[in-house]
Design goal:
The complex is a heterodimer of chains A (540) and B (339). Helices cover 79% and strands 0% of the residues of chain A. Chain A has 540 residues and is mainly alpha-helical. In chain A, helix 3 packs antiparallel against helix 11, helix 4 packs antiparallel against helix 10 and helix 7 packs parallel to helix 10. Chain A is globular. In chain B, the strands form 2 sheets. In chain B, strands 1, 2, 3, 4, 6, 7, 8, 9 and 12 form a 9-stranded mixed beta sheet that branches. Classes of the chains: A mainly alpha (540), B alpha/beta (339). Strand 1 of chain A pairs antiparallel with strand 2 of chain B, so a sheet runs across the interface.
């Protein structure tokens, strides 16, 4: 030993000097090249697709010049300024995020409530599930009653059943109220409560009661103005109000109230103004702009043999309808299974071996090709359970099965990553297992669970192979009529178009379809990311 | 004298939509009144306001798919309440998995229904009614740089595509005037009606086909493959070639009477043999008692004569007025029977 130390001591300088850093540097650049490869190829592909979808080829160089002057330069200038004044940058980001998120979630809400469910159906379930839940929650906050928790579970189980049984009479009530009335009661009124809670609890400044009152009154006062805009129906206005107008007003008001932040408003304002100018100025000067394939007509009309009239509407609605069901099913089944496997299932003895076997098999299931799930869906849901070929419910169940393993695995990882010391501390304070899961584990695991679910849902909405197996229509001219209605999905329609011979389909319509799919995917993800951040920020 | 309300009601909307194909529409109308209708009076009066509604499920051949889509799109312009879903499953897959089990109302096919399929359907009490909706021509294509094989005989095609064609077969093996370069083949996948049709007409036996080729369901892939090599050869439906005549060169086929180039004219006249074929659609006769399905089928037959829809939009050969009239008469008889 002594000699070893000796030698190291004598040769120390030479040994240290001999350590080569080459390997490390090479490794660093290999990883850099690996990440660059993926990002660059994706960027090239997406750039190409967007170029086609927005028809940028036809735009004159004068149009690009106008764009640079009206949009790029002001925004770039503001970004440069924001480097010196980070507070302004943050303000601008906050405003832009609220506006984009508001528009996207507004569209999502309109599609899910107004187009897919319809106000009558939505109101029936709102009365049967939403109202009792809200009442129990408020009551539970006021009175320390231990039975409210169980009652919530009861409502969650019995509510949908009651809603389905009483669907006729309940949706007749909705029918009497009409679409706007339904949304006023079921969306605006709860929004007012939430706004009051948020403003009072988290923001200093305005009185929450005034905000709530404004939330209730403004939508009605604005109705005459809304009626003058043809595209904006009263229902759509009432649905966009809580997603876009209320959060944006609160955020904008708060930023305007703080003197240091005021300057940050300039950025988004300049951008909006620039886009507005870009829409008007080239027309006035007679400059040819781009001729986008992806436009309002495209997302609102049915497929067609002529590229100019082709649209994706039935497929968009079909895909969203399906993915909403898939999200509900996988969250309930996936998180439930993960919680049981991690927290309740025995981990030792013969029963533990069975649990272990189940865990391993779930991991294996994640690698099964999607076509196999398609065949399974065909056999189980379409044939045995008679859900019908190519119906929304068959597709939703099949895709849920497909992504369940991924959701379960990621949820288990998230639950497992909650430190044991927290669990033990909770038990040590006398909490029951259920209280520990509810108060300690779930709040910390939810961000991870949501991340896994987002990735899985992204995979589900792009799936085509299982849909072909269960007989989903290739082309359909109207959105699905209900749970048991026939559907088609965006990837199916885009795939069909990709085999159409004409150039306009190959390079325009297909690219626009890809862009639509991406936008729906991004909307979905941004809603989930928002939720996740909300949970991550919360100090539990 | 067995008549049905359904039929007369839909007849009226048929009339309103028939503008473009007036001749057939009128003929159909006279035929209809000739059949006599006892209780038609009432529904005739309210006929124009009768909105057709319901679902139509169409499955089957990927060759007929574009035609069915084009017709469905037109049909829905006047009948927006009819919910049509079209699935491209291949002729055989459609009969086997959807039509015969009663899951779909109409199955398209790029070949006549087989006896085995008929029996399969009969065992489920599904009776198919045959309607010819257009004529398709298969096109054999070569690279634009290929100047030696612009005319080929059926025997030469058989050598190239037959089951005995070896993997390293060269053009010179087929005809010693041709270059000594390996042939690259791009053809239809075994599930497609195009494959069945090509093998049956060229090789004389269904399914007899070389294994050494690039099988695909998409015509575009074949075009891209053929464009990629001067020594490539491929075949697919005429529709694609009609819309992209410059990307590849069509081979004139010599069936004993001299080479004939594929075109709308030569296919319709029957000159372009043996690679032109009728395309079919098979409604389920039991479902013809449903108003909207019967009306859709009538509309489909009407449109089968339309140059605009069949030739320009889809690229097949339209039917003549007489042929369509005959189909319409047969269909109406079938509808009557189901009434």
């Amino acid at each position: 030993m002594a000699t070893g130390t000796e030698r190291q001591g004598t040769d120390g300088t030479a040994a240290f000097g001999g350590v080569s850093r080459l390997r490390g540097v090479v490794f660093q650049y290999v990883t850099f090249a690996a990440s660059l490869f993926g990002i660059l190829s994706l960027a090239v592909l997406l750039g190409y697709v967007f170029w086609d979808a927005f028809g940028l080829e036809t735009a004159e160089s004068a149009w690009y010049a106008t764009m640079v002057v009206t949009v790029v330069l002001p925004v770039a200038g503001f970004l440069l300024y924001a480097r010196r004044n980070p507070l302004a940058g943050r303000t601008a980001l906050e405003l832009a995020a609220t506006a984009t998120g508001g528009v996207l979630s507004g569209f999502a809400l309109v599609v899910v409530l107004e187009v897919i469910a319809g106000s009558g159906l939505w109101f029936a379930y709102f009365l049967a599930v939403g109202v009792p839940l809200g009442a129990l929650y408020l009551y539970g906050r006021r009175v320390e009653a231990s039975w409210t928790g169980l009652a919530v579970l009861g409502v969650l189980v019995a509510g949908p059943v009651a809603g389905t049984v009483l669907l006729g009479p309940l949706s007749r009530i909705g029918g009497v109220l009409g679409g706007p009335g339904v949304y006023y009661l079921s969306v605006i009124a709860p929004t007012a409560l939430v706004a009051r809670h948020v403003v009072d609890g988290y923001l200093d400044g305005p009185n929450g009661n005034y905000v709530a009152l404004a939330t209730l009154v403004v939508p009605i006062l604005a109705v005459p103005a809304v009626d003058t805009v043809a595209v904006l129906s009263r229902s759509v206005w009432l649905l966009f109000f809580p997603t876009l107008v209320v959060p944006f007003s609160i955020v904008a008001g708060r930023n305007l109230a703080a003197p240091g932040r005021r300057v940050g408003v300039v950025g988004p304002l300049a951008f909006a103004l620039g886009v507005g100018l870009l829409a008007v100025v080239p027309d006035l000067l007679g400059i040819t702009g781009p001729s986008p394939w992806f436009d309002w007509q495209y997302v609102t009309s049915a497929p067609s043999q002529t590229a100019e009239q082709a649209g994706l509407y039935p497929a968009i609605i079909g895909s969203i309808f399906m993915i909403v069901l898939v999200a509900l099913l996988t969250l309930v089944l996936g998180v439930g299974a993960a919680l049981y496997l991690e927290e309740y299932a025995p981990s030792s003895g013969p029963a533990g071996a069975v649990t272990q076997l189940i865990r391993i098999n779930i991991s294996n299931l994640a690698g099964v090709p999607s076509v196999v799930y398609g065949i399974l869906g065909l056999a189980v849901f379409a044939n045995t359970l008679q859900f019908g070929f190519g119906t929304v419910i068959t597709a939703a169940f099949t895709l849920s099965l497909l992504i369940l393993p991924i959701v379960i695995i990621s949820a288990r990882e998230a639950i497992r990553s909650v430190p044991d010391s927290l669990r033990e501390a909770s038990y040590g304070m006398g909490a029951t297992r259920w209280q520990t899961i509810k108060n300690v584990i779930m709040p910390r695991a939810i961000p991870g669970i949501l991340t896994g679910t987002i990735l899985a849902l992204g995979r589900a909405i792009g799936e085509t192979a299982p849909l072909i197996m269960i007989g989903v229509a290739t082309t359909k001219f109207s959105p699905p009529s209900g749970l048991f209605g026939k559907m088609t999905a965006m990837p199916m329609q885009v795939f069909t178009w990709s085999s159409y011979p004409s150039e306009a389909f190959q390079h325009g319509v297909v690219a626009a379809g890809v862009v639509t799919l991406l936008i729906v995917l991004l909307t979905m993800n941004s809603v989930a990311i928002l939720l996740r951040n909300e949970f991550e920020r919360g100090d539990y | 004298m067995t008549d049905d309300r359904a039929r007369t009601a839909s007849r009226r909307s048929f009339l309103t939509t028939a503008g473009a194909v007036g001749a057939v529409g009128l003929a159909g109308c006279t035929e209809e009144s000739g059949n006599g209708n006892g209780e038609s009076g009432g529904s005739e009066d309210t006929g124009t306001s009768t909105e057709l509604s319901g679902e139509i499920d169409i499955t089957g051949s990927s060759t007929v798919f574009p035609l069915a889509t084009a017709v469905a799109e037109q049909f829905r312009k006047d009948n927006s309440e009819v919910d049509i879903s079209i699935q491209s499953t291949g002729s055989g897959g459609g009969f086997e998995n959807f039509f015969c089990p009663g899951e779909s109302d109409i199955n398209n096919a790029s070949r006549p229904i087989k006896d085995s399929e008929k029996e399969n359907c009969m065992s489920n009490d599904v009776v198919s009614h045959e309607v010819v909706v257009a004529t398709d021509a298969l096109t054999v294509v070569i690279n634009n740089e290929n100047d030696w094989a612009t005319e080929m005989t059926v025997e030469e095609l058989e050598q190239i595509w037959g089951p005995d064609a070896s993997a390293d077969q060269t053009w010179a093996d087929v005809n010693d005037q041709w270059p000594d370069e390996e042939i690259e083949r791009f053809g239809a996948a075994e599930t497609s009606g195009t494959f069945d049709y090509f093998t049956e007409t060229i090789m004389g036996e269904e399914g007899a086909h070389t294994q050494d080729y690039e099988p695909t369901e998409t015509d575009r892939t074949i075009v891209q493959g053929v464009q990629g090599s001067p020594y490539a050869i491929g075949y697919f439906g005429f529709a694609y070639f009609f819309q992209n005549p410059d990307q590849v060169t069509a081979v004139a086929i010599d069936d004993g009477d001299g080479p004939v180039k594929p075109s709308l004219e030569t296919a319709a006249s029957g000159e372009y043999t043996p690679l032109s074929r009728p395309l079919f659609t098979y409604p389920n006769e039991n479902r013809l008692s449903e108003d909207h399905i019967a009306e859709f089928m009538r509309y489909f037959i009407e449109q089968s004569t339309s140059e605009e829809v069949v030739a320009e939009q889809v690229g097949y050969v339209p039917r003549s007025d007489e042929q369509a009239q005959k189909e319409l008469d047969e269909l109406n008889a079938a509808i009557e029977e189901m009434g």
